[in-house]
Queue: 2 jobs
Job 1
Amino acid sequence: MRHFDELLEQLRRKLLEMSALVESSILDSIKSLTERNSSEAEAVFKRESEINQLEIHIDDIATSLLALEQPVANDLRFITAAAKINSNLERIGDLAVNIAERSESLIRHPQFPVRADIPRLADLATSMVQQSLDAFVKKDTDVARGVLLSDDAVDDLRDSIYNELIGYMKKNPQAVQPCVDLMFAARSLERIADHATNIAEGVIFMIDGVDVRHHAQAGR
Amino acid sequence: MRHFDELLEQLRRKLLEMSALVESSILDSIKSLTERNSSEAEAVFKRESEINQLEIHIDDIATSLLALEQPVANDLRFITAAAKINSNLERIGDLAVNIAERSESLIRHPQFPVRADIPRLADLATSMVQQSLDAFVKKDTDVARGVLLSDDAVDDLRDSIYNELIGYMKKNPQAVQPCVDLMFAARSLERIADHATNIAEGVIFMIDGVDVRHHAQAGR
């Protein structure tokens, strides 16, 4: 096996490792939010620096591959897609930290119920991330395109959560803090879904060489 | 001039064009926020698709450069840094859109004053973006490192804005909507500052080949 191929395999392996870590952080952060579980939040905080270090390591491998020799078109697309997926995964890890921080604040308001739509948004965002990574592993553009279709549902759900929480705060000023926590948690979940969309776009580019970014916004 | 050098120059030029567009969007979005000016918000919305198209174009140039031949270490670092700066700039453009959207909502609550710390946060975030781009143009790591130092001030300012707005909402439930708008605008300004930090880190990597990311968080 050439050194180049070994590094390429290492890039693939490390990215899967990164995916697994980030997926654990999403699931833990959501559990901490919906079940008011402080130890799950702690697990997210502990995983943060591992994810950050792995991001840098994966970037180093990608840069070495580009420096080593002139990659053929397929490999080049894989390397640049991997670099983008890597940075999106790191950002998802950060957002899981944000959610865990909001959970810690919410735990101090046990009388305030978590709104019903938050777990739905969490499920949707989680499954988008899982699908986008699945699309990457299986090189399946159909699965990747499926992720892009969920984007509108996420925005609708976020808007309805915002509206419900704003209405609740107006009538219950003592609940402002937990409502604000939930709004920011919903915002983080929406951003996680956005990063899943970015990953899916990266997978489509990697396989088909077609750039599908920003098509929805073009008609603004 | 070789085709490679021409493309490299084009990459540099297009990135400066992107910087100028995004800087205009930040300034317009802040003006729309602090002066309740709807036409400035409109200008931000109109600029969005131009920024998105330019992001894709810049990415294409970077990919072509990597495919064309094996770049030497210096050029390779410039190309990968340019790609990262590009994606951070596009994200800053998105955040300016978020701020402009919040401004439009705020314009419907003219009786509610914009909190004093918001313009300060806006100034800080804007100057961080300008400095990070200046560091890129002048290849000046001192300027880039200066940007990294502003990060704590941004977080402190954001926290004090959040606390003030939460206190205000508790006492004035009728002002929940404009307060929420301002909280999200502050969040967007903080994220703009984070992207300026990312750009500064990219500049340092480009010049020194040293990866300075995540050092602050390592001791979490």
Job 2
Amino acid sequence: MSEPRNIGFVGLGAMGLPMALNLVKKQFHVRGFDMKPEALAALNHAGGHVAANAAEAAHSADALVLMVVNIAQAESVLFDAGALAALPEAATVILMATCPPNSVAALAKRVEATGRHFIDAPVSGGVVGAQGGTLTIMAAASNEVIEASRSVLVAMGEKLFHVGLEAGQGAMVKTVNQLLCGVHIAAAAEGMALAEKAGIDGQVILDILGGSAASSWMLLNRGPRMVQDEPEVTSAVDIFVKDMSIVMDAGRASKAALPLAAAAHQMFLAASAQGHGLKDDSQVVLTYRDLAGLKKG
Amino acid sequence: MSEPRNIGFVGLGAMGLPMALNLVKKQFHVRGFDMKPEALAALNHAGGHVAANAAEAAHSADALVLMVVNIAQAESVLFDAGALAALPEAATVILMATCPPNSVAALAKRVEATGRHFIDAPVSGGVVGAQGGTLTIMAAASNEVIEASRSVLVAMGEKLFHVGLEAGQGAMVKTVNQLLCGVHIAAAAEGMALAEKAGIDGQVILDILGGSAASSWMLLNRGPRMVQDEPEVTSAVDIFVKDMSIVMDAGRASKAALPLAAAAHQMFLAASAQGHGLKDDSQVVLTYRDLAGLKKG
């Protein structure tokens, strides 16, 4: 396979746009598509090229990057919108959205049946990582396929991990990442509410446990927003309702019991049911306080 | 209250002995008692004094430190063995063992009813912290009582937090600490087993998630032992069976629902039931692997 030069990019959202711009900066010829005109304008302004639809973005591309919302959108772009048919025979589909592992594996089979290559390559690091090109990429595909697209991947992410040979394994690592993130947020809220019930100040808990063996990245990051009244929304409760659903589906599909993830999922779901779905995910603590008979504030 | 000089110390185990030795180093007159002659010999060798029983250790002490195994031992030392009666009227009982918050509150009432003072002061930091005098101390009592014993406490711990005015609040902070530690170990094992079921190498999970938002102190510390065959035992599964029992009892006593802690507790209990109770607590992963239909190795 020759070095990729032409990149099709579908999904120019909060993550996708800065990722596409990093490809432009690294001298790739990027042709992007999104439903939002302002995203296309931003790509164009930065030196990228605008496609009229997903198929046009794929046309003559060496690699087609998908940074869409979910697996349904990825399938729709590839099959309904004709992007896969428009993509040259030897090209590679790089799916970077967070999707269920078994669905990714099934999608890869359909793509590979047409002769194209497929890389399952979800990311972590958020918008900050997308902007800085410092994302962690969890890639699964054969060595040959990964190596051929290495320059594309490292243009978007600082840490490229080759986690397995089978599509779905990248998605699974991302799934385990979300499992731990979701459980750690819920655990921090559970501990916080228990302490508050005993009349202990939440900030004292953060000061002590943030520096002990009880610490987690999420305790340090979300904990301070658990003791604020109307915290900034960095990621919503409903995102974890969705992500923990992917976690539970992955456990069911691969037959692995996930008792902590199941409990955390129920707490995010209850938080959403209580009207907190669009609040910062730290606000699952409101549901814990409610369960403990505490009123906030 | 005058500056404390004479310290009675009961419970010279893996934590208690080095804590007592740190008091000796700081020029306190320490009279210690333990059931094990070798612990008494070590105290004597380091310049401490040996008591024939708990009451003798308490006799003429300004403060009586209890670093016993559990609340039952603390009660036994104070009431059955006569240490409280032997302790001078104005002296202070400092309970540093990990005990249930409501039991600590009840014990404090009984001690204070005799005119003595009581500090609820559990620690975190383990044997390493005990040896180095770098423990974190979570102390609850009135300002006056804490200040009067400050020199005693800071001789054993680097970070002294005054977490509340009521006995039981120190124990509650320690309880929340254990809640998070236990949930984080179980969550790491849950994620590890899910990844392994998908054919992903455990070390890859640690390399990626240890540097992501999914990280926790426990993932970094216990994770590596989850991918070893016969890891060193730094703290046993059965310790978490006990500590998560304290967590669940605390939730019940204060009426706070703890769904994640409950799930984690069941996993440690199952691990113990399966014969892993004396293994390193990271080995709760064996139970997760078993639940996922994976055989180890």
